[in-house]
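Methods — Computational structure assignment.
A single polypeptide chain was analysed. Its primary sequence is given first, followed by the predicted tertiary structure written as structure tokens.
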Amino acid sequence: MGTVQNHPATQNVKDTISNGQSAMTSSEFRNLADSRTAPNRNTATGQPLTHYHSFFYNLLSWENPRATSISFLSTILFIFAARYLPALRWTFKVLYLTLGCTAAAELGGRMVLSQGLASSFRPRKYYTIPREALESSLEDVEQLINFFVIEFQRILFAEKPTHTVAAFVTSLLSYWLIKFTPLWGLSLIAVSLLYLGPLVYMSNKEFIDNHLENATNVVNSQATQVRDLAGQHTSRATSAMKTYAGDYTSKAQNYIGSARGSASPKAANSGATAGPGSAPAYTSSDFPHAPKQEPTAGATSHQEQYENSPFGGKAEPAY
């Protein structure tokens, strides 16, 4: 058995398979990187999408299965590493060991050799990040942030109702799971659904589409029945309101006609009693008494004149 495995032909086949797999994996990663181009479609508001829309669609649709599998496993391993490995503590440990060795070498070299060892390895020019690299990195960060911002608004304003419903179900489940599931566990579930959900759908696309179509037809038929039933109730209510309004209108008209009929005989009787062209009868008591004397001399105010007048109480009225 060992002779067959160590045979040059067997090793050649193994090398060919290994080289072919690595070449295909490299090709898929290149395809994934080249997919970062802005798609031709726009949002419902006419805004162009970012190149990360094409990138994530290519990644999660498993068009490059090797690249997608490696990214999925890498994300899972990162979650477990963040959960079980003290990465931050190790980072500070490596940092203090490096700085401690550098300081000891520099001080020891100056004490023994009159020249620091660390400073002797200093480059002639410190490394700087080129402006072009910074601009391209900032552009990628801007595109990534806008990807999440645009997708959140598309979900929030129901550009695609199915995506909005899926986001609602996901947030509802997350609300209940966060009560007894740690953050790393929730992240693990989310990543698994994000990668494996499209794979399951694509593997059973025809079956799932048929069931979704049947469910849509059932929902549409139920909605149609509800609309028809609501229309019938609305028409009945409208006809009943019209009937009630007509009854009340006729009753009001009858009341107004009877009131006018009872008022007209009274007006006729009063007109017959008074007679046409007759003047109303008035008596002298209906008018105030006219003054019979001159205004009192020496009165300086209207109050004094009133008190001295026949109506002020000091003079007797003339009948």
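Note: Residues 205-274 form the longest helix (70 residues).
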